[in-house]
Amino acid sequence: MITQKRFSIEIFPPKTKEGKDNLDGVCDTLNLLQPAFFSCTYGASGSTRDTTFDQVADMISRGIDTAPHLSFGGASENDILDLLTRYQTIGVKRIVALRGDLPAGVDGAHQLAHADYLVTFIRQYFANHFHLEVAAYPEIHPEAPSYKEDIKYLKGKFDAGANSAITQYFYNADAYFYFIEECQKQGISQPIYPGIMPLNNFAAVARFSERCGADIPRWIAKKIEGYGDDQVSVDAFVVDFMSDMCRRLLDGGAPGFHFYSMNQIEPVKAIWQNLALS
Ligand code: FAD
């Protein structure tokens, strides 16, 4: 059993009563794995502001440590201050601080307040109350001017007061290892947790990967394509190759993982148990 590393699980807020009931069951089951915390996403431009808050509040009231994701989006500083104060009041201790994206198809993301600004803002008003996570990109953020500049901006988020980072998902462990080396060369010493996105819903992940700049290696795409409609074989392959990748990451020094659960129990549970994470 691996106990010194940190393993966390991401969910997104439900849209319907049915979705909420399903998610409660998912969280209760995944909570038995004893993750360090759950995190709950924040829709583009704050579109899930209330549902993210409600989900986080509900989980905290049930004794499940949960961190909201947050970005300025189109909100005013007063609105964000108010939201952060409400989070503090209900017992939130950790925030995933982001720039966020605009809804799909809407241009102008470059006008959004960068995450380093949100980190500075939170530190200004709440000192060290919150542990702040920020996003990192081993395969480099699609809007970044260059590999080096993206790492410089990540360093800016740490210099502003972030405690640790969670990466965009990737399927190539070497991309992560190389990135960590380059971050260290630029003076980053804080932990950077790999984000692990199971590939079971291949079509959806492939579509999203084109937008967020994550590379799906050709051999993986071809292998999954070869299974056709045989989802049982896809699931088995995904658990197998992702467990191998995670093992390699841990052996190579990764400080833990952040699993993108997509509000599903499997395959996070299977990978977790394969690796005897906790
Ligand atoms: P930033 O750190 O601001 O970076 C964005 C771009 O600007 C990068 O290209 C960077 O190189 C550049 N940059 C950074 N700082 C500066 C600066 N000071 N000046 C000029 N350029 C700069 N999105 C959501 O909408 N909701 C979520 O809940 C959500 N959760 C996420 C969780 C994780 C773990 C990750 C990895 C991503 C998540 N995202 C989420 C996606 C994220 O919002 C997008 O990737 C977004 O495009 C960038 O957010 P960021 O916080 O990395 O932005």
Q: Can you walk through the features of this model?
A:
The chain has 278 residues and is an alpha/beta fold. The protein has a single domain, classed as TIM Barrel (Alpha-Beta Barrel). 46% of the residues lie in helices and 15% in strands. It has an eight-stranded parallel β-barrel, surrounded by four helices. Flavin-adenine dinucleotide binds next to α4, α5 and β6.
pLDDT < 50 runs, ≥5 residues: none
Mean pLDDT: 95
Which band does the percent of strand residues land in? Answer: 5-15%
**Secondary structure: helix percent:** 40-55%
Terminal CA distance reads 6 Å
- Might you state the CATH topology name? TIM Barrel
Bound molecules: flavin-adenine dinucleotide
What is the 3D shape? globular
Using brief descriptors, characterize the structure shown.
single chain; 278 residues; alpha/beta; TIM Barrel; 10 helices; 46% helix; binds flavin-adenine dinucleotide
Can you give me a brief rundown of this structure?
This protein has ten helices and eight strands. The protein has 278 residues and is of the alpha/beta class.
Q: How do the helices and strands line up, and which of them pair or pack?
A:
Blueprint lengths: L5 E6 L5 H15 L5 E4 L8 H13 L4 E5 L6 H14 L3 E4 L17 H12 L4 E6 L10 H13 L4 E6 L3 H13 L6 E5 L5 H11 L5 H9 L4 H21 L4 E5 L7 H8 L3
Helix pairs in contact: 4-5, 9-10
The structure holds flavin-adenine dinucleotide (FAD).
